[in-house]
Amino acid sequence: RTLDNQKNLYKLVGSIEGVSLPTTTAKYWDRIKSFQARPDDLLICSYPKAGSTWLQETVNMIQNADNLQKCAQAPIYKRMPFLDMFPPITFPSDLDNAEARPSPRSLKSHLPVHLLAPSFWEQKCKVIYIARNAKDTVVSYFHFHHMNKTLPHPGNWEEFLDKFLAGKVICGSWFDHVCGWWEAKKRHPILYLFYEDMKEDPIREMRKIAQFLGLEVREPVLNQILEHTQFETMKGNKMANYSNVSPCLMDHTVSPFLRKGEDGSWKGKTGRVNKKSDLTLSKCGREGSGLTFRTEL
């Protein structure tokens, strides 16, 4: 089959336990679910467009604080394979790359907590989760659907907003995702971070990450990492901005993978994102979990 024919398959949506996922992810679900984690694996997890690439780059630099140049030797998706993404069959999958990598491995997933491979819990792997408020997430996710040719067309803004708030998008309900992982941290070694906190004081959040990983990073190195992970720097970094991904998969002329990296981008949309997303955000507080979000700094 030609690549054009193949890529049309990846715009279709499958479903696993009621959660919408790309058909390729659903097709290889047995492999994803049976993935064998190792005790020293680190998993970076988030709902889509919550800052996972930013977090990955930050974590990878903290891990390589003694030689930051290692982070420039390969794209981020090679350094931290994305377990639940299967590209067209002419490309090796990240799952293949993950299985072939030596320990210790750093891996990425967008799966809700209940769909994660059980071996991660059995091996007591450390997880770093990053959450972003629903308003900014939905705006970023809408633009991402336009540039990512492996995703279904989002329709117009109003249509996509309704689907997002109903949990009828890839990776399912934002609310279920962020709340599920929040509850899981009571039982598992999970560092739960917030996008807005990283924007507000990135050095403080880097220290949290280093402490969680049992690493000591000197202040001058933290400042180097801060400079390297500034949004505009990452946007121009080919090892972090996905610009070396085939344009038949991601069209950066439509919208760059790293688009704005701002909080408060929802303000440019209609009032419905404010009113309806507030209802979704308010659910977190009503659950009595202590999980709250800021929509601007």
Explain what this protein looks like in three dimensions.
By secondary structure, the chain is an alpha/beta fold. The chain has a domain at 21-137 and 171-246: P-loop containing nucleotide triphosphate hydrolases (Rossmann fold). Helix content is 43%, strand content 9%. The chain is built from 15 helices and six strands. It has helices spanning 3-9, 23-27, 29-33, 52-63, 76-79, 94-100, 118-122, 134-147, 157-165, 174-184, 195-200, 202-213, 219-228, 231-235, 271-286; strands at 13-16, 19-22, 42-46, 106-109, 126-131, 190-194. It has a four-stranded parallel sheet, with helices on both faces. A hairpin with a 2-residue loop joins strand 1 (13-16) and strand 2 (19-22). Helix 4 (52-63) packs across helix 12 (202-213). The chain is globular, with a radius of gyration of 18 Å. The protein starts with a helix and ends in an 11-residue tail after the last helix.
Please give the alpha-carbon distance between the first and last residues: 49 Å
The biggest sheet amounts to:
4 strands, parallel
Order of helices and strands: HEEHHEHHHEHEHHHEHHHHH
Low-confidence stretches: 1-11
The SS-based structural class is alpha/beta
- Helical fraction equals 40-55%
Say which CATH homologous superfamily of the domain at 21-137 and 171-246 is assigned: P-loop containing nucleotide triphosphate hydrolases
User: Which outline best applies?
Assistant: globular
**Spatial arrangement of strands, main beta sheet:** 4-3-5-6
| Rg result | 18 Å
